[in-house]
Design goal:
Layout (H helix, E strand, L loop, with lengths): L2 H16 L10 H11 L9
Length: 48
């Protein structure tokens, strides 16, 4: 990897780390459960 490629990659990674979290997260219990299941890698079609 060249030096310029490395710099570009570093910039992209820094930008990714600096982006704020999603503001529109579900606040209902069902929405929260679905989000947690998705984060934990559960299959959403297995348990409706």
């Amino acid at each position: 990897m060249t030096n310029t490629d490395q710099k570009k990659e570093d910039e992209v990674l820094k930008r990714m780390l600096n982006t704020p979290h999603k503001k529109h997260e579900p606040t209902t219990p069902l929405g929260r459960r679905r989000r947690e299941d998705k984060e934990n890698g559960a299959d959403p079609k297995a348990d409706p």
